[in-house]
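Same chain as my last thread, 189 residues:
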Amino acid sequence: MERRLNTRVEDYFSISYRVITREEYDTLERVYGTTPSKEWGVPELRMPRPDLAAAHDPLTAVITDLVKKVDRILEILNHNRTSENASGQSYEKATCMDLSGSGMRLRGTRRLKTGELLEMFVPLPTTSAATVRLLATVVRNTESVDEVLDTAVSFSTINDEDREQIIAYVFQRERQILAANRGLSKSEL
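reply #2:
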């Protein structure tokens, strides 16, 4: 029986990655292990906001949520523009299928080999505009339908704050799933 160190939750969102060499891994490991992803930031794209936290009406809450989502979209667009083009490196796109604090299963069209090293950008689908940067190792591949490939990766270098952010997201997602399931079972009675 396989025991997992972290809780895993099914979720679907887009991620970016690139295969890196051992030399690149060794160079990036020092930075990714010690610097939280939030310190990489994209402050030039953050929208200035009035202090909406003090207001308690429903419209203000909706507007605040929308502003956070726009910030998130701008961060993703900036990530695509600067990380993929300015550096001259190309990143593959894939879909996260499930996530935990120690790894993820992703689905894409590229066949990755067990043991390959990856640099990954994981934009957590929250309103906090969190994109986690980390290094991972491919641990398993399985072929799905229509030549789509499922790949399991283990997070080999990730800042502790970033790992905690992923774990917090996993628990938040579990609560959402449980609440939705409870709602379904009540309506079926």
